[in-house]
Design brief:
Rossmann fold; alpha/beta; globular; 8 helices; 7 strands; disordered N terminus; 36% helix
Length: 219
């Protein structure tokens, strides 16, 4: 994969800081109907997130045409899930992603049916992150547990050259582990070894997309 850095990346990389607020705590809101969710998806303002244009450009440039989404949650109950789902549906359309595979055990049946109408295929069982990297495949993994990310990396130790992840920051997790004097896990080891390139994504401090980065293997 060939990564070209553009104007959407540099300002945020230089100034990005963690913002702590009550909104960073996952909150349950009154259940949204499927009709309300459709309206939220249709009215999604992708332009307010510099990350959208950056990701769109990089996915197209790297010929990504399929995506696996894990850890979004239930859009009926969580605002963060609604925002993440709307973001991915808009990205699917504008980056010409032909297929999206989805799994989340918390997603309700009504939302799964909604996803199908937007071209998502639903994985019927929990593979615990044991998917394969592929040359034109990206993974969208917001707020997934570290055990799942480590399972994914472990499953692909021979295929790291095809890594393309939209995931919580490896660099930040490594920093926290070193600060707390914890033994590095597999994820942190590949970060410390310089095997990846990580590019923090600018979501204008929206906690629904807390600390997401685009991560490629280093060529």
């Amino acid at each position: 994969m060939v990564l070209m850095i553009n104007k959407y990346f540099f300002p945020y990389f230089m100034s990005r800081k963690k913002k702590t607020s009550i909104s960073s705590i996952p909150m349950v809101f009154p259940t949204a109907s499927i009709e309300q969710l459709e309206n939220i998806i249709k009215s999604f303002e992708k332009g307010k997130y510099p990350a959208f244009a950056f990701l769109k450009d990089e996915l197209i440039r790297n010929h990504i045409n399929e995506m696996i989404c894990l850890g979004i949650g239930d859009p009926c109950r969580f605002i963060s899930s609604r925002s993440q789902l709307s973001f991915i549906i808009a990205l699917k359309k504008e980056a010409n992603i032909s297929s999206i595979e989805f799994y989340d055990p918390d997603c309700c049946d009504s939302c799964l049916e909604l996803l199908k109408t937007h071209g998502f295929s639903i994985t019927p069982i929990n593979l615990e992150g044991k998917y394969k990297f592929a040359e034109r495949r990206a993974f969208f993994l917001p707020h997934c547990p570290l055990s799942l990310i480590n399972n994914l990396i472990r499953e692909n130790t021979e295929f790291l050259s095809d890594m393309c992840l939209i995931v919580n920051s490896f660099a930040e997790q490594t920093r926290i582990s070193l600060q707390n004097k914890q033994k590095p896990d597999l994820l942190e080891n590949i970060s410390l070894a310089g095997l990846i390139e990580e590019f923090p994504l600018d979501f204008n401090a929206d906690d629904c997309f807390d600390r997401l980065s685009l991560i490629f293997s280093k060529k």
